[in-house]
Amino acid sequence: MTHKPSVPALLQRGSWPETARIAAVLRKETVGGALLLAATVIALVWANSPLADSYHALRNYEIGPAALHLDLSLGTWAADGLLAVFFFVVGLELKRKFVAGDLRDPRRAALPILAAVGGMAVPAVVYVAINLTGTSGTLAGWAIPTATDIAFALAVLAVINTHLPTALRTFLLTLAVVDDLLAVTIIAIFYTKNVQFIPLLLAIVPLALFAFAVQRRIRSWWLLLPLALITWGLVHASGVHATVAGVLLGFVVPVIRSRSHGGPEAGPGLAEHFEHRFRPLSAGIAVPVFAFFAAGVTIGGFSGLADALTDTVTLGIIAGLIVGKAVGISGTTYLLSRFTGATLDTNLRWLDVFGVSVLAGIGFTVSLLIGDLAFGAGTIHDAHVKIGVLIGTILAALLAAMILRTRNRAYRRIHETERVDDNADGIPYMYQ
């Protein structure tokens, strides 16, 4: 008699090493989220103050070698340069999850991948549906509401003080990382114009040398940093958004030490080392600085806000972030449960999944980046994109807070069971 393989429960608790690592990552991202919030508030206040001209002058100030066509504004340097660091960390994180993390099990990997796809497809459909009858060119922003900002989301969780279970936090983080990878893929395919193939092909050379060096476990910054910068510069010169270079560089870093260098049991590859070094730089500097230059939109009082709310671009973004994300992620998760026969972990309810899905509607960093690429900096639609992203993010945060707070007593009970027992080598009983 044959038995069908058991179907793992959805959102079940992962292994202790993965749980402990995720907890450490989330602590750093929460601090980064607080800095992101602060940078956004400063930018908005400055851009709507009597000193608004000085803010725009600072953002548009150009610096860099003109001979290399890198005389870019500070705002562009933040979007093309600093965000490449952010996407480098995304590449490292995603590769580590699928090579050495719990997601190397295809059954575990299916949920966050499919949920991320659903969480991007449905917001795009919502945006397109609202803009089908809009003014010419508004459909270019279809991908704006597809992104999830994990740092902002975790900052919201810290503010509302909810004891969200580890499984849900891990799901949110993994979902956002996959989301970011899909977003940079969309940028490379749909928001790249006039590709110069010679620089793009030349970028393969320093990228290959970087890959060879890290595979040989070379950590020397004086070698790796120039190779990374040359790769970035050539990708930028090709017309492909330079953040793509960050993801590619992250993907070539080894997660597990090769057998020729001591075997997997000898220790991790360089990915863990680089992630430890660059995640604080990404969360603490790169993303907040980008937010500072990207979020500073001059609203123009109530009349300006009213004008923005009559633009289908603004309405499409708000609806995509709030409705599209919630329906896309929770709906995909529910359909996966129905078709596979998997059930939720016994500690969780479908309301929890819906709450996290609403929380994923906090789209900020990548949404602003795509908006800039879709409509161009300084245009009226670009200003309305920023207003739409800000309103959608705030509303998603408020709705998620209300939903998740209703379950906070249950979350606190789960949290108590996840506390570390000092008498068991720091490992909770449930993981032993």
TrEMBL record:
One of its GO terms (cellular component) is plasma membrane. InterPro entries: Na/H_antiporter_dom_sf, NhaA. One of its GO terms (biological process) is regulation of pH. The chain crosses the membrane at residues 30-47, 67-90, 111-130, 142-160, 172-191, 197-214, 281-302, 314-336, 348-371, 383-404. It is found in: Cell inner membrane; Cell membrane. It catalyses: Na(+)(in) + 2 H(+)(out) = Na(+)(out) + 2 H(+)(in). It comes from Antricoccus suffuscus. Belongs to the NhaA Na(+)/H(+) (TC 2.A.33) antiporter family. The lineage of its organism: Bacteria, Bacillati, Actinomycetota, Actinomycetes, Geodermatophilales. HAMAP family: NhaA (MF_01844). Na(+)/H(+) antiporter that extrudes sodium in exchange for external protons. It is a multi-pass membrane protein. This is Na(+)/H(+) antiporter NhaA. Its main location: membrane. Keywords: Antiport, Cell membrane, Ion transport, Membrane, Sodium, Sodium transport, Transmembrane, Transmembrane helix, Transport. GO terms for molecular function: sodium:proton antiporter activity. It holds the Pfam family Na_H_antiport_1.
